[in-house]
Amino acid sequence: xxxxxxxxxxxxxxxxxxxxxxxxxxxxxxxxxxxxxxxxxxxxxxxxxxxxxxxxxxxxxxxxxxxxxxxxxxxxxxxxxxxxxxxxxxxxxxxxxxxxxxxxxxxxxxxxxxxxxxxxxxxxxxxxxxxxxxxxxxxxxxxxxxxxxxxxxxxxxxxxxxxxxxxxxxxxxxxxxxxxxxxxxxxxxxxxxxxxxxxxxx
Length: 202
What we know:
Elements: H1 2-29, H2 32-39, H3 43-49, H4 53-73, E1 74-75, E2 78-79, H5 81-91, H6 95-108, H7 116-138, H8 148-168, H9 175-187
Antiparallel strand pairs: 1-2
């Protein structure tokens, strides 16, 4: 048990170091050698815990998801829409992690990519969470007539698609502002002070 605890502690240390390196060097500059040096391991020693760079980065993304969902953005089985907007704000302050997510996501669509299973499972869970959140806010139908299940992939696509546009041209695409514009579309009107729908004038 003691050896297992030490191994888990070392893995956590490696993940923290990887996040630091990503923040400093970006996705391409994050190498196994750089992370190993940061935690005082040889590259071979690092491979004992994470056999490939992709495995390490997927573990970082999984850890990121755990932090994000544990930070109050979830309510029950769903996400609160206004806190989703806050999550987009937070992502705009950590471009290295967003770059890593987006790069691995793009690569994962190829057959047998090591991150494919992670993203496939993740998107299934995220779509279910988004549908639950939309149902919580709107009931069985959104103002535009879509069901929560129909709108959930759109909400997910906007969140992740905006990240690509923002990474490519952050001066032209204000990711947090644009995401709030999309929430306004979902609600069929201007968002109120608490983020609730304000009915249109008749």
